[in-house]
Amino acid sequence: MKKTLKLFLFLLSMVLLILLVSNNTFTSYLLGEVQYQKVQLKPGNIEVPHERTIIWKNQSAFADSIYNFWARRTISEEMLAGKGNAPRILLAKLLIGREIAEVNKTILKLKAWGVSGSSWALNKKGDYDFTFTILTTILWFYGDQPEVLYPETKDFLLKVLLTEDGNKFRYTAPRTLRLVKETENHLLMTEGSRYLKNRWIMLHGNKDSYFNNIQNGMESKIMALLEEMKTNGLYEFNSLPYIGYTITALLNLEAFASDNVRAEARNVLDYINWCYAIGSYKLKNYPPMRRRYEKSVIQDFDNNYHTVFMKSWLSFVPYGNYSDRVGVGKEHAIMGACLPYRPADKVVRLLFDKRDGYFVRMGHGPTSSPEIYFAGKHFLLSAGGVNRGKRSLIVARPITLFLDDNAENLSETFHLSGPGTNFMEWNNTGVYKKFACAAGPVFIPKSFVPIRKNENWSIYSTNDSVQIAVHSTAGFGLIAIFENTDSDSLLSQLTLSNREIDKLKTCFQLPDGHKITYNVLASKDKWVIISDNEQMLNRDFDNWPLIDGDIKNVTQR
């Protein structure tokens, strides 16, 4: 009998292992990347800003439009018993005070249709945390307003729909024999909602230690998770679509947790938003990201879930000129608008005013991809990063030049990448100060024609006196950015400074005599840029700090 049981368990383990190995998401955790919990990044010389003096409005037309968009929708019978937007529709109706009795009646019809945590072959009913995270928001907003959330509805939420409580902090994905670490967004949604249900019950009179987050250890575990994210960054950095769910879970904690947890959740949100501000220009953002290889085909800048939150928040302050069009992510816009978090002052300012510009490098730890940005007053160069093997789940993007224009798609920008067209073969880290290079040609948007040109160089200009110098061949592309420069003189100087044109594949001489060397075919663990004026640079981006560079002038008042 014992031998039969052992054989059964062995065969079961083998089947499970095969299923895991066939799933890229899980093998990335089991066999691939070193995760952020396993490393300790240096902080770098750029601090995350936290100061808040901006007076935000209490209402915004954008937020009202989002609330009404969701409130007008109906909930089908199918939506009552499955993953979807039913909780957001209910929340929207409550936010604008519409159909209160009907909302309560509908909540009582909802099903606890699954279990929390990542869904996969042996956990097909996973992802229920996507639902109860929003139901947690409803509980905390209206649980003490019996005229809005009826007592029986509140009890149904607590006893039936909010399925996680106590202190069973689950670090691993369901049904993986504790071999596979849970993904970041699921960890935050599941354990954050568990923590907040405990807190609600405790604050409403239940003294059982089971619900006391201090006594049962949930407070310390949540704090430790947030501290890791604040110190070492996100594993699922810039992720599409998961950054939206990560931010939503953090917003709930920032709104409803204890003072200590609220402050730490705010710190993580401030870090995420500071990185976004550094890596975007006028809310255009196209960084490397981790998770979901199928998202590599996205070229529309409005398909960015982080941008949706930014538009929600910025709608409450008269700052900056930007399009409030939302391509995807209206489900996240409602959460950004209704929950109380707002970004720090310097984040808001940097989104719209790059001042004297900056050069910033962001580390994401071993066997990951860095982020590299150079900004001028009227432009931003954004590195595309590097894939580190199939299990890394890192989507490398083209190096992209953002200008002060209305570009909504990659095809409307100058960009370059290579070698070839497969992003898994790229090392698009070749961004430096006013300069970028890659092992492929430069794409020129149709709206631009050169104002000056010769055999090797083309000069393009913008209305705000930005000159873009381009050298492009089938296997090599280079762009250099100049401001307020005479185009005839620039073309002549570039030609004179780089007379041996073959050397451009490894070395670029600026008109002022400055020399940059690089290797566009560098191995995937090395920064493409080698030296600046014979000064060797730190190319080991696996060991780069969290945020490092020169951004001093931008953050001055």
Tell me about this structure.
- α3 packs across α14 (330-338) and α5 (86-95) packs parallel to α7.
- The chain is of the alpha+beta class and 557 residues long.
- It has a seven-stranded antiparallel sheet with strand order 14-10-9-6-5-4-23, with no helix packed on it. It has a six-stranded antiparallel sheet with strand order 12-13-18-17-16-15, with helices on one face.
- The protein is elongated, with a radius of gyration of 25 Å.
- It is built from 16 helices and 23 strands.
- Helix content is 35%, strand content 15%.
Keywords, separated by commas or semicolons:
single chain; 7-stranded antiparallel β-sheet; 3 domains; alpha+beta; 6-stranded antiparallel β-sheet; 23 strands; 557 residues
